[in-house]
Amino acid sequence: MASEATPLLPRHQTTGNQKIHNVLVQMLTLVWFLCLPLRSVVNLVLGTFNFFVWRPFVWVFVRTPFAGLLARFVERNTWVVILFFALPASYIFDMFFSIRNWYVRSFLAAPKLHDQRVREVQAQVKRWNEQGRKSPMCTARPGWLTMSTRSATFKEDCSRISVNLHDIIEVDTERQVVKVEPLVDMGQITAHLVPMGWSLAIMVEMEDLTVGGLLMGVGLEVNSHIYGLMFETVERFEVVLGDGSLVTCSRTENSDLFHALPMSHGTLGFLVSAELKIIPCKPYMHLTYEPCHTLDEMADKVTKYCESDNPPPFLEVTVYSKETSVIMLGEFADVTTAEQRAKINHVNRWYAPWFYKHVEKFLTTGQADEYIPLRQYFHRHTRSIFWKLEELIPFGNHPLYRYLLGWLGAPKIAFLKLFTHTPEVRRKVAESAVYQDIIVPISTIRESVILFDEVFDFYPLLFYPVKLFYKSPGTEGLIRNPRHVKEGTNPPWEMYFDLGVYGIPGNVRRGEPWDAAYANRAMEKFARDNAGFQLMYADTWQTRPEFEEMFDHTLYRKCREKYNAVGAFPEFWDKVKPQDQR
Ligand SMILES: NC(=O)C1=CN([C@@H]2O[C@H](COP(=O)(O)OP(=O)(O)OC[C@H]3O[C@@H](n4cnc5c(N)ncnc54)[C@H](OP(=O)(O)O)[C@@H]3O)[C@@H](O)[C@H]2O)C=CC1
Ligand SMILES: C=C(/C=C/[C@@H](C)[C@H]1CC[C@H]2C3=CC=C4C[C@@H](O)CC[C@]4(C)[C@H]3CC[C@]12C)C(C)C
Predict the structure, then answer these.
(1) DSSP per-residue letters across 378-394
(2) Coiled-coil annotation: which residues (predicted)?
(3) 424-551 to CATH, choices 3.30.70, 2.60.40, 3.30.1150, 1.10.10
(4) What is the 3-state secondary structure (H, E, C) of 90-138?
(5) Which residues contact 67 (CB under 8 A, 6 or more apart)?
(6) Contact between 235 and 200 (Cβ < 8 Å)
(7) 103 CA from centroid of ligand 1 (Å)
(8) Per-residue pLDDT for 173 more than 80?
(9) 429 CA → ligand 2 middle, Å
(10) 370-418, pLDDT tens digit by residue?
(11) Which of 32, 36, 100, 176 is packed most tightly, with the most Cβ within 10 A?
């Protein structure tokens, strides 16, 4: 049944808003025709710019001996490129998309458009079949637009299918689900749901992450110690298969496909919608900061919190050195009293210090609590790209910068990649910086932090606890079952955690040799040996047999055969295997 907030329209019914939309479209069409001569002038200018400036620039940038020089310039003056290109481009892009999303939300009925757009995806896949299934398919989303540190060069050899589905289709507060298209991003969802008093059960922090990417890869957040990985909160997927047919799958319908899809990275079909669990929320996050001064103290406290019968609803740790860290415990809250109002902190306002810098100070000032407006809490790491921005714009957290330019926000990762990832830079990133997350059992906290300290020597480290549910035989997907489930739990689970490292390792910073292959492989082996896994937005340094030891391909391969994916989509490994590491 549809909710009161956004009713699902009967097919082909026209609302008042749609009528306004139709009138607007007619008016715009008239203006468009009247402006035809102007259009020719604009086209001429853009065409000339493209031919004489942009194309030669790209050619010089990528294919000539100057590529090295330019790459060095970009590398040494990254902040110049970011400040003058990536930041303004990100600002304009975000503005355009919020206007576009507001317009679609206000004037167009998404359900009707959804059906039509799904048919367009199906038509492309059917055409690909009719034309002789030449090369395997992938989404047409360019590599630079995604969150991956990889450059997705495999796409050059694929038939690219445009899965241009950006909208929230329906919020059903009775069934407590939201139906969304795969390119809906986290920023869009919080803007839509939070004012209605709802949140995704797993509401991921970076605004640009997409539902499709998080479900076909891995999504998690600081309440994953309760709900598990994001795909555990999915009720139903709608997928276009390799033959162009449309199937839905859930725990009861085509359940093999339902369990095989998470982590499959678009190699079983094209996701065209997902129904995700939503939970009621309150306007603030009440956050308590608990500083820890030894690794043992942090490990003991976190394990106790996560495994208790009444765990804190949100739990995050930021690790500032081998021994020091801050645990953050959160719960939804209203702010009603003067005392509570005095503790409100707008952590995402343009002049506020970066969130992790703010948190670090509790190591010296001691335990404290505050109330953070919910949407700002959800996206607390966007403004500083966790702690990466400090390396890119070293003065980005200076009060002068924040007050003068903070309103520009963070550069979008897409534009960072577009403007700074020459092939040279990309190779250097893989060899002299580390962007990795592993998910391993909570019993290994001490060993994991010590290992990361030895091989990366970079802080802060990200720490999110994650509950990994045991899957019954036949439903175990690419992510393997935990080995030691907790006694007496139904469904059975083991507590894991995500440990993330994003930055330039100590040795590289000090100008000492650092062996990227050794360090990354040591981390990957540690994950494999402990029934854990690596997040595949990152470069993997594993061999194929090691990769298949990490991810269980049994159900995945059965589904590739059964659902016409063989030959239609590349294999998981072919999308993520190392491409440009030496
Ligand atoms: N807190 C968290 O959980 C965080 C997670 N991440 C990582 O970021 C990744 C998501 O980044 P994002 O840029 O949104 O996603 P991407 O565009 O990088 O997509 C990730 C994978 O999902 C596939 N995919 C995406 N949409 C579809 C679709 N409609 N149908 C079929 N396959 C699809 C892509 O296929 P194709 O290659 O064909 O395009 C790709 O292989 C996650 O996988 C996660 O690991 C990053 C930061 C935080
Ligand atoms: C998985 C988690 C968080 C991950 C993020 C911190 C990383 C996801 C994608 C990463 C990046 C992508 C591309 C980049 C371009 C490079 O030139 C610089 C680095 C980076 C910005 C890089 C930085 C880290 C990520 C944002 C957790 C939350 C589970």
Answers:
(1) HTTTTTTTTTTHHHHST
(2) none
(3) 3.30.70
(4) HHHHHHHHHHHHHHHHHHCCHHHHHHHHHHHHHHHHHHHHHCCCCCCEE
(5) 60, 61, 422, 423, 424
(6) no
(7) 26
(8) yes
(9) 12
(10) 999 999 999 999 999 999 999 988 999 999 999 999 988 888 898 888 8
(11) 176
Pocket of ligand 2, beta carbon within 6 A: 147, 149, 220, 385-386, 388, 413, 416-417, 420-421, 429, 435, 437, 462, 464, 498, 500, 502, 535, 537
Name the residue of 114, 203, 206, 209 whose CB sits within 8 Å of the most ligand 1 atoms, as the mutation to test its pocket.
Answer: 209
Amino acid (one-letter) located at 296: D
- Residue range 111-280 in CATH 3.40.190.10: no
Confidence band, pLDDT 50/70/90 cuts, at residue 84: confident
Q: What is d(CA 89, CA 144) in angstroms, rounded to the nearest whole number?
A: 14
The count of other CB atoms within 10 Å of the CB of residue 232 is: 18
Q: Whose CA is nearest to atom 14 of ligand 2?
A: 149
Residues 2-61: pLDDT tens digits? 343 343 333 334 456 666 766 776 766 666 666 566 666 666 766 776 667 666 766 666
Q: Beta partners for 199?
A: 279
Ligand 1 near 270 CB (within 6 A): yes
Please state the domain extents for the chain. Answer: 16-108, 111-280, 287-377, 424-551
Beta bridge partners of 500: 437, 462
**Nearest-CA neighbor of 505 among 519, 485, 525, 487?**
519
Please state, rounded to an integer, the average pLDDT across all residues of the chain.
Answer: 89
Q: Encoding tokens for residue 405?
A: 């330019």
Q: How far apart are CA 379 and CA 347, in angstroms?
A: 10
Ligand 2 nearest atom to the CA of residue 421, by list position: 17
**ipTM exceeding 0.95?**
yes
Strands 137-139 and 159-161: parallel
Same fold? 111-280, 424-551: no
Q: Which ligand is nearest to the CA of 569?
A: 1
The Å distance, Cα 352 to ligand 2 centre, comes to: 22
